[in-house]
């Protein structure tokens, strides 16, 4: 099994290291990850600037390829110019902090896996629910088991799995649930501050407002200490509104001369 | 009508200027746009650094607010800290270059409108099909007519309209079509080059491979010189695969101890 690993926390992240150690038991692992932390970069790709690829060493041994770009860049250049052929699976993570509900939209971890899905490679994004997680052993083992299940069941083209794992010892985890993206979203607050020169600046903070109340949603599942597995895709068409809008008579916009 | 305008080409873009001139005929326009070009940033938001807001002047007159962040940042901070209340509509654009098929995923223009939809504000992303477009008059007029139609018909919460307009004189445009996101995607190529110091670097290029062959898709519609209007949303759940995966028995991943 040829496995490509990436993340958005950067190539020196302990979550990526734990994932690599576990997945090396399954097959050939190639690591291509951002030089620096790329949280909340969404599905950004680098077009206006070139990318560089640097060999990254850990304890004196070659560990992987560091790219001075985004998570999506790492998947593209990793497959095209480092591996030169698609891997059997891409695993992105293990991210510090959950990627559920609206956070999926902003997540670099998910976007790396999504870029793989765009390239027709089965992929999984894995996050643990705490930014302070220290023990990734269960999350890494779960990722490995899921990777094997994906290989066995075949993933439909254009789909990836978004996995969120409670930051708890295995015996305190309630189980695993197949879920949908939740509706919880941020109540944003920009903190207004002044720099040493008296100039205003604004820092994004806020609270995630819980709109999810059933175990069918990723956000509620992790609150109840379940592992959440959500299939997501990149067809953004809102088919329900598409049907509704047939009655809008858009053609009137064109005939109406101003 | 209170209107918030943003884009990803930056506050000095002629496409944004043309849109502002036209929409000022409809109501009160507030402009909040990135200081610099932010193409292909996707739905990135700025969390690790603060944002600054600068008054931007054009020909000696106040024009709008420049934010040193991403298109999604502009919508968040524009609504929270500049307007202090939601506008009636957000219009993002007019972007230089089409945002159809897979490009929707990477687009900053679309992400600005999507951020508005997340904040429950009706929104429209507008792009013209050429990077060299000079005449935005039809695209701006069409955006204004569509904004009025959206206000009249009410947009379902969580939906935005992604609009692509051929870079042609109005009398050469075939008409307007309600479309779905196409399946065309990039065959990426990273050009390998050497810097003046002999070090390798890689620049993303590639060709958009046309997988769309019907006028129901955004990509084919613009190739046939139609204006394309696609309703999109941010529920990324792949419901078809969700149903398929019920037979995967994910619970076995948890029982299976390693």
Description of the structure:
Two copies of one chain form a homodimer. With 258 residues, chain A is an alpha/beta fold. The first copy, chain A, has one domain (2-182, 213-252): Stationary-phase Survival Protein Sure Homolog, Chain: A (3-Layer(aba) Sandwich), CATH 3.40.1210. In chain A, 28% of the residues lie in helices and 30% in strands. Chain A contains eight helices and eleven strands. Chain A has a nine-stranded mixed beta sheet, with helices on both faces. Chain A has a two-stranded antiparallel ribbon with strand order 9-10. In chain A, a hairpin with a 2-residue loop joins strand 3 (53-58) and strand 4 (61-67). In chain A, helix 2 (71-83) packs across helix 4. The interface between A and B is large, with 84 and 84 residues.
Overview in brief:
Two copies of one chain form a homodimer. Chain A is of the alpha/beta class and 258 residues long.
């Amino acid at each position: 099994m040829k496995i490509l690993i990436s993340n958005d926390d950067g190539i020196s992240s302990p979550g990526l290291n734990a994932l690599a150690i576990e997945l090396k038991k399954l097959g050939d692992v190639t690591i291509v990850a951002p030089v620096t932390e790329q949280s909340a970069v969404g599905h950004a790709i680098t077009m206006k600037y070139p990318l560089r690829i640097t060999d990254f060493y850990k304890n004196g041994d070659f560990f992987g390829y560091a790219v001075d770009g985004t998570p999506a860049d790492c998947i593209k250049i990793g497959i095209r110019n480092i591996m030169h052929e698609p891997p059997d699976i891409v695993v992105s993570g293990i991210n510090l902090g959950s990627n559920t509900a609206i956070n999926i939209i902003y997540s670099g971890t998910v976007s790396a896996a999504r870029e793989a899905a765009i390239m027709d490679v089965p992929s999984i994004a894995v996050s643990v629910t705490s930014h302070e997680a220290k023990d990734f052993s269960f999350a890494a083992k779960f990722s490995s088991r899921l990777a094997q299940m994906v290989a066995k069941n075949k993933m439909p083209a254009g789909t990836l799995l978004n996995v969120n794992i409670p930051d708890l010892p295995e015996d305190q985890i309630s189980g695993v649930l197949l879920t949908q993206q939740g509706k919880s979203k941020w109540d944003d607050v920009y903190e207004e501050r002044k720099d040493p020169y008296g100039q205003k600046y604004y820092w994004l903070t806020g609270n995630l407002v819980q709109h999810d109340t059933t175990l069918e949603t990723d956000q509620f599942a992790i609150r109840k200490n379940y592992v959440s597995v959500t299939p997501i895709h990149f067809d953004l068409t809102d088919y329900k509104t598409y049907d509704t809008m047939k009655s809008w008579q858009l053609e009137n916009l064109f005939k109406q001369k101003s």
